Amino acid sequence: MLSPSVSEAVITRPEMLEQCIGRTSPGTDPCVFIQQVQKAYHQAQRALRTVAPDTVPAKGAQCASHADYLGAMWTARSARRALVVGGGAGVPSQPASYAAGQWASVHGTGDVVRLDLVSGAPFEAQLMVRKPFDVVITYSLAHHLANLPEFFRFIDKHTSPGGFFVFGHEPNARFWRNLSCVNAMLQLRSERSKSSARLRYLRPSAHFTKVRQWLGAYQAPLSITEAANEVLRIEFGFIGPLQELDFVRLVDLHRPQEAEGWQCLGLTGFDVKSILETYLPGFREVWRSTACHVGYRPRLLLSPAWRKVDLDLARRYPDDGATMSVCLQKR
């Protein structure tokens, strides 16, 4: 059973988590286990250059596709002192880092404080400034966190009265309750799967690589799963490897997966009403936007035909996109 020390962890399938811990790192605190896996995964990403290093700033064009997030930022434009939470490592944090840069250019660099939560360090331990902020900004962060009550208490504590909380680019629970959107996602996934299979079969290089592997003349590059397992073994003493699906569930705790049977360990996305009632009763919603109505794939990457489907669903169900960004104001 989950230990009392993690009684606040939001895990809806504890048996899956216990199985992972039992075969890889017996006796480890579940919250610590999740942080270790996430840290190893991000280290592997950077080592394999699958994400930009922390020192590479995000370009404005990279954020332009996240119009829902930028809209939430615009709603809080009157704020001056900003706290950017989770703007430290990996692609998900880049738009938050870019937003922090934009905020600094308008209001002055001294008004922006950034925290990196990927490291696993406690929230309060990283924050030296105790005065509340006019706006707290997160981007694609909360769905990675096991201890949501602690996270939202931190947000509440460090947002000044009348200040804003930009809850950016998170999985939307309403999408998974909308059968029209879910069925469109499944149809798109089926079409993409068939197309990918045909392309793999017709691509000569794929067959040539298999022949080279068979002859021993080619060694496949290290996968991110293998690299992350190596970090876990060396740095944290794991006795067994995690599978790709384990990493998916542990890194994206509250993000439902598009593949059948790939259940997440935590919530099936976030519901704004539930967040306000459960965690942030002193806040009110002032702006919301959703995107990606045929799954997590951005509209710009869809074919013209599927772009029309996405647009039609967005018109019919404006609050039911797969991703959402919300601006909340503290009373």
Outline:
The protein is α/β, with parallel strands linked by helices and 331 residues long. 46% of the residues lie in helices and 14% in strands.
Describe the structure.
It is built from 14 helices and 6 strands. By secondary structure, it is α/β, with parallel strands linked by helices. The chain has a 6-stranded mixed sheet with strand order 2-1-3-4-6-5. Helix 7 (148-157) links the parallel strand 3 (133-139) and strand 4. The longest helix has 24 residues, at 179-202. It is globular, with a radius of gyration of 21 Å. Residues 1-5, 51-65 and 88-93 have low confidence and may be disordered.
Q: What is the total domain count?
A: 1
The biggest beta sheet reads:
6 strands, mixed
CATH superfamily: Vaccinia Virus protein VP39
Q: Structural class per helix/strand content?
A: alpha/beta
Helix content range? 40-55%
CATH topology name = Rossmann fold
What is the CATH-assigned architecture? 3-Layer(aba) Sandwich
Query: How big a fraction of the residues is strand?
Result: 5-15%
- By DSSP (H or I, 4+ residues per run), the number of helices equals 14
Described by the principal axes of the CA atoms, the overall outline is globular
The Cα radius of gyration reads 21 Å
Q: Strand order within the widest sheet?
A: 2-1-3-4-6-5
Provide mean pLDDT, rounded: 79
CATH class: Alpha Beta
SS elements, strand count: 6
SSE pattern, N- to C-terminal: HHHHEHEHEHEHHHHHHEHE
Any low-confidence stretches, pLDDT <50, length ≥5? Answer: 1-5, 51-65, 88-93
- Report how far the terminal alpha carbons are from each other: 39 Å
